[in-house]
UniProtKB/TrEMBL annotation:
This is Glutathione S-transferase. GO terms for biological process: glutathione metabolic process. It holds the Pfam family GST_N. It catalyses: RX + glutathione = an S-substituted glutathione + a halide anion + H(+). One of its GO terms (cellular component) is cytosol. Residues 26-105 form the GST N-terminal domain. It is found in: Cytoplasm, Cytosol. It comes from Aegilops tauschii subsp. strangulata (Goatgrass). Belongs to the GST superfamily. Is involved in the conjugation of reduced glutathione to a wide number of exogenous and endogenous hydrophobic electrophiles. GO terms for molecular function: glutathione transferase activity. Keywords: Cytoplasm, Transferase. InterPro entries: Glutathione_S-Trfase, Glutathione_S-Trfase_N, Omega/Tau-like, Thioredoxin-like_sf. Its EC number is 2.5.1.18.
Length: 176
C-alpha cells in the first residue's frame, strides 16, 4: 500500500480504476464523488489528456482522513494527488493538468495569453452562473429557492446563447 494509506489507515477505501497501470514516478489519484460537477470536469480533463488515474470515491457526509489531510482548507472534492502532492479546486487542477502534461495532446487551454484569459473568464462564468445554481436547484430546501436557482441558470444560458428574446420563452416554461 502507499505510504499515506498506511499512515492514515485507509487500506479499505473504495477505489475505482480508470485507465491502465501507472508508473510509480507519475502517479495520479483523484479524490472525487460521483455527484460533483467539479470532479466531473477534472475527470473529463484527465480523459481528454489520455491520462490514467486512480479514482478514490469520497463520502462527503463522512469525510475521510485522506480528504481532510489533502484538502485541510476547504475539505471538499475534487483533489488531484500527483506523486503524493495535492492540488485542490477544479479549475486549478485542470490548469495544472494542462501545464504538467503540456506535451500530451490535446491542450486544454489556448496557447495565446489573451485567448487563455477569455477561456478562463468563461470557465468562471459557467461555474458561477450555471454550475453553482444547478447544485442549489437540486439541494434547495424550498420550492422558492429551487425556482430562483433555475431562473439564475436560465439567465446564464441566455448570456451564453446571446439570446435576450429567449428569456421570455424560458420564463413561460418556469411558470408552467
Amino acid at each position: 500500500k502507499h505510504q499515506y494509506n498506511q499512515s492514515l489507515n485507509l487500506q479499505h477505501t473504495p477505489i475505482a480504476r480508470c485507465g491502465g497501470e501507472m508508473a510509480d514516478e507519475d502517479e495520479l489519484k483523484l479524490l472525487s464523488t460521483w455527484a460533483s460537477p467539479w470532479a466531473s470536469m477534472v475527470k473529463l480533463a484527465l480523459h481528454l489528456k489520455g491520462l490514467s488515474y486512480e479514482n478514490i470515491e469520497q463520502d462527503l457526509n463522512c469525510k475521510s482522513d485522506l480528504l481532510l489531510a489533502f484538502n485541510p482548507v476547504h475539505k471538499k472534492v475534487p483533489v488531484l494527488i500527483h506523486n503524493g502532492k495535492p492540488i485542490c479546486e477544479s479549475v486549478v487542477i485542470i490548469e495544472y493538468i494542462d501545464e504538467a502534461y503540456g506535451s500530451t495532446s490535446p491542450s486544454l487551454l489556448p496557447t495565446d495569453p489573451y485567448e487563455r484569459a477569455i477561456a478562463r473568464f468563461w470557465v468562471d462564468y459557467i461555474d458561477h452562473k450555471l454550475v453553482i445554481p444547478w447544485k442549489v436547484a437540486f439541494t434547495a430546501n424550498t420550492e422558492e429557492d429551487k425556482i430562483e436557482a433555475i431562473k439564475q441558470i436560465l439567465v446564464g444560458v441566455n448570456v451564453l446563447e446571446g439570446d435576450s428574446q429567449g428569456m421570455l420563452q424560458r420564463e413561460a416554461l418556469l411558470r408552467w
